[in-house]
């Protein structure tokens, strides 16, 4: 497989966000966890600020210690851990859950997501493929497999999988966003932007999809436009979180100041 180039390494952490969007849905981690987190907080985790996420981690951590085999609780806990960057801890939670539920598709898919977030791509592929049912494929698992392959440098196979997922679930924003990220990984930012815009316009697009569009635009040097998109959210707290996300992505190669100060053509 082709290795991920310099731009691909820069985008790699952003690609993990897209994997979360694609894989979480199939595991119902987003849906199940969002419901669970909503009971501890007033809104889904995608709209929480850093303080709310930290509180959610503490709340679910205490519950998890009392009953680590509670599947919905463990999925919720692993998801909020991942949202706060505690990938190793999230993986430990999911590994224990996979031992308790070795044949559960939902658990295996979430386990694959955690493995990928921790950089264990071969193991992640195995978990996602074991969770899939070839006779009745789940589009979310197909898209998740593509996202893992993208991060392993196999953009050609990944894009084939994304298009297969779109055949099953047309106009799904997480798949379109994954496809856009694939082109971003290979440096084709114009094509990436096109898919990202389609993803943002599709019903059900969430904050992560808009963040990735802002990233694609920011990498092209259109800093103000990127910041405007990143701030176009449901709340001031989430808007600021999006700006921090964009800054973190661009700062990996000191790109933030470079793009901000770039002369207009």
What does this structure look like?
Helix 1 packs antiparallel against helix 10. The protein has a domain at 49-131: Alpha Horseshoe (Serine Threonine Protein Phosphatase 5, Tetratricopeptide repeat). The longest helix has 22 residues, at 6-27. The radius of gyration is 18 Å and the shape is globular. The protein is 75% helix and 0% strand. By secondary structure, it is an all-alpha fold. It contains 15 helices and no strands.
Summarize the structure.
The chain is mainly alpha-helical and 265 residues long. It has helices spanning 6-27, 29-40, 50-66, 71-83, 87-100, 105-117, 121-131, 139-151, 155-168, 173-185, 189-201, 207-218, 223-231, 236-251, 255-260.
Comma- or semicolon-separated keywords:
identical protein binding; 265 residues; globular; TPR_rpt; signal; single chain; TPR repeat; mainly alpha
Number of strands: 0
How far apart, in Å, are the first and last alpha carbons? 37 Å
Mean pLDDT: 78
Residue share in β-strands: under 5%
Helix percent reads over 70%
Largest sheet: none
| Helical stretch tally | 15
Tell me, briefly, the overall form. Answer: globular
Order of helices and strands: HHHHHHHHHHHHHHH
CATH top level assignment of the domain at 49-131: Mainly Alpha
For CATH, the homologous superfamily of the domain at 49-131 is named as Tetratricopeptide repeat domain
Oligomer class: single chain
Q: Structural class, from helix and strand content?
A: mainly alpha
Please state the second-level CATH architecture of the domain at 49-131: Alpha Horseshoe
Give the C-alpha Rg: 18 Å
Question: In CATH terms, what is the fold-level topology of the domain at 49-131?
Answer: Serine Threonine Protein Phosphatase 5, Tetratricopeptide repeat
Organism: Phyllobacterium salinisoli
InterPro entries: TMTC_O-mannosyltransferase, TPR-4, TPR-like_helical_dom_sf, TPR_rpt, UCP035836
Signal peptide: 1-23
Keywords: Signal, TPR repeat
């Amino acid at each position: 497989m082709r290795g991920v180039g310099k731009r691909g390494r820069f985008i790699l952490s952003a690609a993990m966000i897209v994997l979360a969007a694609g894989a979480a849905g199939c595991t119902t981690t987003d849906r199940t966890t969002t419901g669970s987190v909503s009971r501890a907080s007033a809104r889904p985790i995608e709209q929480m600020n850093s303080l709310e996420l930290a509180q959610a981690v503490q709340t679910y951590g205490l519950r998890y210690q009392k009953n680590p085999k509670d599947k919905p609780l463990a999925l919720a806990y692993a998801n909020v851990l991942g949202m706060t960057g505690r990938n190793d801890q999230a993986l430990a939670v999911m590994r224990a859950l996979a031992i308790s539920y070795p044949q559960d598709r939902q658990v295996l898919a979430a386990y694959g997501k955690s493995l990928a977030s921790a950089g264990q791509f071969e193991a992640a592929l195995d978990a996602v493929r074991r969770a899939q049912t070839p006779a009745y494929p789940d589009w979310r698992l197909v898209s998740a497999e593509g996202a893992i392959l993208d991060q392993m440098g196999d953009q050609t196979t990944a894009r084939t999988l994304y298009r297969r997922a779109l055949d099953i679930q047309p106009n799904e924003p997480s798949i379109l966003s994954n496809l856009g990220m694939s082109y971003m990984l290979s440096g084709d930012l114009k094509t990436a932007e096109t898919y990202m815009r389609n993803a943002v316009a599709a019903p059900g697009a969430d904050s992560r999809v808009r963040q990735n569009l802002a990233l694609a635009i920011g990498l092209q040097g259109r800093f103000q436009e990127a910041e405007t998109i990143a701030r176009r959210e449901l709340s001031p707290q989430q808007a600021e979180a999006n700006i921090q996300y964009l800054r973190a992505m661009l700062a990996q190669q000191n790109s933030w100041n470079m793009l901000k100060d770039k002369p207009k053509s």
